[in-house]
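Database export, one record per block. Field names are fixed; values are copied verbatim from the stored entry.
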Amino acid sequence: MASTLTSKDIEDFYIRLYFDTSNGYLPASINRAYRDFNRTIENIPKTDEEKNKWRSNLQEILASRINALLTVTFSDQAEFTMWHKKTCIALRIASNEILTIGQAQKWVNMSLKYAFTLGDNRINGINRNYHFFHIPIDNIIQDLLKEKYGIEKIKSLRWSRVNDYDIYYNYQKEVRRVLTGTIVLDEEFKLFNQS
């Protein structure tokens, strides 16, 4: 007897394994993305109660910013980047400057990447500005981009310690320059999958 499972059944199974969707798909993306960088955070509040309150506040800010993004169609890269910069700075300020720009970009960019993978049918509007999304910067992608395209890594700082948005964005601009004519997050997906 052949299985009656559809590809959607299998996809839903993988989503349940990787994401806690009990509070919705966007919160699941944001929570999962937090786990991708949280080991790099220093000086996080000490007690569980303080830590949970701190993290919850930041998650609400990020969710609010992304929900606003879902209803807007940006006209160009500069407009999206202004949204991105304001989002990273809002997270940095709300974290009492515990988060760096490097950590904030990783959280924002991975949240968007995860949300995109969950699809527009689950997070309505996520596809709208996808072609403007930034790649999440970390050691793995910097190494892969250097190896395949010769893009130099961010100098003198680990990605998680970058605290100047211009340093972060100069790297993004170089990636876009080298990968002209592509959707940079598509290329990042492919590189990551090949690594």
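Remark 1: DSSP finds eight helices and no strands in the chain.
Remark 2: Residues 90 and 96 are 10 Å apart (CA to CA).
End of record.
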